[in-house]
Amino acid sequence: MMRLVVSCLWICAVMGASTYVGADWLAGPTSTAPTDKRMEGLQHKKMAPINVPMISNGNVEGYVVAQFVYLIAAENLKQLTVPPDAFITDETFRALYSDQLDFNHIEKYNVPALTTGLIKKVNQRLGGEIIKDLLVEEFNYITRDEISK
After folding, report:
1. How far is CA 89 from CA 15, 32, 66, 72, in A?
2. What is the DSSP letter of 129?
3. With DSSP H G I counted as helix, E B as strand and the rest as coil, what are the percentages for the chain, rounded to 5?
4. From CA 51, how far away is CA 3, in angstroms rounded?
5. Do 146 and 62 touch, CB atoms closer than 8 A?
6. What does the CA dihedral 132, 86, 118, 129 come to, rounded to 10 degrees?
7. Element (H, E) at 10
8. What span, in angstroms and rounded, lies between the C-alpha atoms of 145 and 132?
9. Which of 54, 146, 40, 66 is nearest to 103 (CA)?
10. What is the pTM of this model?
11. Are 132 and 71 in contact (CB under 8 A)?
12. How far apart are CA 6 and CA 48, in angstroms?
């Protein structure tokens, strides 16, 4: 009887050890790659799409649909009483509405200049370097003909 009990305990110990070693091996190395110090403490917020009408000769020719994601420091976001979405939407609308877009060649639009200018203007209005980066999620031009389809 004693042999049976010792055998069962030995089998349980071997099974437990092998399960632990197998799970540890599947988990991979415990050391992680160094994190990017520039991205520590930043949150990303996805904005709602912005639709800006493009008017030429008194007629609506189409709409620019833009959607952005902005990076902001978590402590800055907590201090703001008004979310920066409203400022980014306003500045985007102003910039796109006042630009002379070539409707036939929208792919040549200088998007990096737009995002850099938006960051600068929004940070001026918010009174500091609040918005760290502005990423383009979507940037399309939809003609009047495509809307009616």
Report:
1. 60, 38, 10, 16
2. S
3. 50, 25, 20
4. 79
5. yes
6. -30
7. helix 2-27
8. 38
9. 54
10. 0.67
11. yes
12. 66
Q: Tally the residues of the chain.
A: 149
Please give the average per-residue pLDDT across 69-97, as a whole number. Answer: 86
* Residues forming a β-bridge with 54: 62
Mean pLDDT, residues 8-14: 84
Spatial contact of 122 and 87, defined as CB atoms under 8 Å apart? yes
Identify whether the C-beta of residue 141 lies closer than 8 Å to the C-beta of residue 103.
yes
Asked if residue 67 lies in contact with residue 52, where contact means CB atoms within 8 angstroms, the answer is no
- How far apart are alpha carbons 114 and 149 in whole angstroms? 30
Query: Tokens 């520039």 label which residue?
Result: 38
pLDDT tens-place string over residues 85-100: 999 999 988 888 777 6
**Cα within 13 Å of Cα(109), Cβ side:** 20
pLDDT at 6 over 70: yes
Pairwise CA distance, residues 47 & 85, whole Å: 7
| Residue 129, φ and ψ in degrees, nearest 5 | -85, 80
